[in-house]
Design goal:
Length: 229
């Protein structure tokens, strides 16, 4: 899979893309990430990528022409999504990552800045995506989250495929609690059932924990789970 990131700050991605499982996946060419700076496509001597909004208002808006030029300079693979990271977009979810990982061979990510991007950029897009109901200083943070969540699902990135099937949000239920050694830490003991060796009892306990945890922490997901049963 190919990722093309259109960003005013390509150095933002250097360390995160070299770290952990994602860094290993890129080294093994499970995916590739290419960075393109729209500032390189400006034509004025000051290399301006933003301007004042028509109609007045606070802040600056990213100009359409450098973004169009940057995106149009990229190769175009058959199954491509062009995504603007924007607070106005659909919320990032595990289902979105699954769709992108299974249906796309190229993902173009446009990182917004300032007060946003010129509305005409929408003619380039297949979708807009938001990290959540809050505002960040840049689109690079949600772009990294999307890259991470998608590459993680590509075959070969995670060694144990079963761990992907048991992730939180694979179903509406949250994950169950996890414990490791020591069996007793500062008076907090690992539940006896997990040390029993009874795999059926362990599976039942974990399922019940998922249900209770989801009901308590995410009642919206719990209601969705009830409806899907």
């Amino acid at each position: 899979m190919r990722f093309d990131v259109v960003s005013l700050f390509p150095d933002f991605f250097t360390s995160p893309l070299q770290s952990g499982l994602i860094g290993k996946a890129l080294t093994r060419q499970i995916a590739e990430v290419h960075l393109t700076n729209p500032r390189d496509f400006t034509t004025d001597k000051h290399h301006r990528v933003d301007d004042e909004p028509y109609g007045g208002g606070v802040g600056m808006v990213m100009k359409p022409d450098p973004i169009f030029a940057a995106v149009e300079s990229l190769p175009q693979w058959p199954q491509r999504e062009v995504i603007l990271l924007s607070p106005q977009g659909e919320t990032m979810t595990q289902a979105l990552f699954q769709h992108l990982a299974s249906q796309c061979d190229q993902i173009v990510l446009i990182c917004g800045h300032y007060e946003g991007v010129d509305e005409r950029v929408s003619h380039l897009l297949t979708r807009e995506v938001s990290l959540g109901d809050f505002v960040l200083t840049c689109g690079e943070i949600p772009a990294l989250a999307l890259i991470n969540g998608t590459i993680r699902l590509l075959p070969g990135t995670v060694g144990k495929v079963d761990s992907l099937r048991q992730d939180s949000f694979q179903t509406p239920l949250l994950d169950y609690p996890h414990y490791t050694r020591p069996a007793n830490f500062r008076g907090w003991a690992v539940p006896e059932v997990l040390r029993s060796g009874n795999h059926e009892a362990i599976a039942q306990w974990r399922r019940q924990q998922q249900i209770e945890r989801t009901q308590t922490r995410r009642p919206d997901l719990y209601e969705r789970w009830l409806q899907e049963r």
